[in-house]
Amino acid sequence: MAVLTDPIADFLTRFKNATRAQKEEFNAPFSKIKADIARILKEEGYIWSYEIDTDGKYPEIRVKPKYVDNTPALTDLKRVSRPGLRQYSGSGEIPSVLGGMGISILSTSKGVMVGHKAAKEKLGGEVLAFVW
To answer: Which of 10, 30, 39, 119 could, after both became Cys, cross-link 59 (CB 3.0–4.6 A)?
Structure first.
């Protein structure tokens, strides 16, 4: 197994590649933040389901992307904050994605949440990714 410097970017890239290749599911190494991101993607309708597989030597997260008429629900995504350049946003400065057609995922003091929910709760944080 290779050492990853940005495991969140790896997870998002696996998700994007799986949807473009029309895969039924994909696996990624498990972490709590990846599970939170998968939870948000499920709530927002980008994936059907996810589950945590602890049978192997290392736990994995198994995700089933959502397709509507063989078209992926995910159009694209962008990793915003990264280990070399963190991007933070205040509660009034949370960016909208495609004029509200997409979502921004933030890591706040109350956990990982969608940008519009963080703005409603007046929370800022690290902008992890844009999904549309």
So the answer is: 30
Is residue 108 within 8 A of residue 81, CB to CB? The reply is no
Cα dist from 120 to 35, 65, 104, 106, 113, whole Å: 23, 28, 14, 13, 11
User: Which residue type sits at 108?
Assistant: T
Residues with Cβ within 8 Å of 124's Cβ and at least 6 positions away in sequence, in order, are 88, 89, 90, 91, 93, 94, 106, 108, 118
Q: What would the pLDDT profile of 28-81 be if each residue is shown by its tens digit? A: 999 999 999 999 999 999 999 999 999 989 999 999 999 999 999 999 999 999
Instruction: Tell me 126's DSSP state.
Output: E
Q: What are phi and psi of 68, to 5 degrees?
A: -120, 115
Measured distance CA(68)–CA(43) in Å, rounded: 16
Please name which of 122, 109, 129, 107 lies closest in space to residue 33, comparing C-alpha atoms: 107
With b for 16 or more beta-carbon neighbours within 10 A and e for fewer, the 111-128 pattern comes to ebbbbebbbeeebbbebb
pTM over 0.90: yes
Q: In angstroms, rounded to a whole number, what is the distance separating the alpha carbons of residues 23 and 27? A: 11
